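Per reviewer request, we include the raw input and output of the structure prediction for the construct analysed in the revised manuscript.
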Amino acid sequence: MNLPSRLSFVAGLLLALGGFFAAQPAWAESAPVAPPPKLGLPLACLPGETCWLVNHVDHDPGPGVRDYGCRKRSYNGHTGVDFALRDYSKMDDGVAVVAAAAGTVLRLRDGMLDGDVSLVGRAAVAGRNCGNSVIVGHDGGWETAYCHLRRNSLVVRRGQKVAKGDKLGLVGSSGLSQFPHVHLALRHKGRVIDPFVGLSRRATCGPGEQPLWDARTWPQVRDSGTALYDAGFAPVKVNAVGLRRGFYRESQLSPKSAALVFWVDAFWVEPGDRLQLTITRPDGRVLVEEAKTINKTQARHMQFAGKRRTVDWRPGVYRGEAVLTRRIRAQRAGGNAAGGETAAERAVKAAIAEALKDPDAEPRKPGVFERVRREPRPDAGIRTFHILREVEIK
């Protein structure tokens, strides 16, 4: 074939190929990647008041534990975020699990018992760690999983379309669970995505450039972690199992009660934290005051203080207050390892104006509150967590 013939052949081939590609249907073109869903809360609650975010995604590929902020608020291999209820009595009351984003129900499981898996062993739920669960699909290969729902509480069916906030079932403690909570997992084409990080981040520690919580939810969850979440009075020595089942929260006691015990339960205490419990008499005098310095990180920590009866208790309202004090230090020269602002710095900046108004004021009513106070040194502060309860003796 001479040169003109070769050129003519190539030109014809290119023309034919051009016509072939032009004739392809639109679906043959590269489809745009669907944006990730922006997530709302996966349950109907008020974070910090009626529910608490207690575990994050584990980013450590080995046997260690590291959450998105390079802390240890997770456990080895954890693939989602856990929102806990106060105790089993609140689970029994019924708290809705809701869709964190609109989508279509892909898979379901129901019928598993609720309880504490540590009492029966992990083998009892092998292959069914998620317990009673709902998997919702979203555009572009995204999925959200809702695990540990209450037995026989699911109200959706496979193939059903759900809007953001639609009820899926109730919070439970089924599968690989030790307390009532919902585990929310976000996946993209099978890969676990931490909603606090999103698709990318420049730093090793801290949230990503675009976390995947929606604008309303992000402020509610961004500073989750330590909390004095429950407290109460009892006439006897308490134990963690009982109080987490909803016991030991008397509103009235007899003057002949064998003891007066005040207790507190906390999420995520850290080494060096100082937890002080005080019981005050009706006349304002201190009856009991005990403090303990925490020596290790604990996901949950229960502490109590009290006194045995020697004579009948004086009638009136007794107050119990727990105060956890933490010294916070901002890292110099750029903040955290990511080169950004530390969580401690953010907490101080957010609360310092309010805290300085009256840093020593006592709460007027029972409840939970938190305070951050700046110390004279610019790189340090004190963060305190309070909870106050009352009991009437009559």
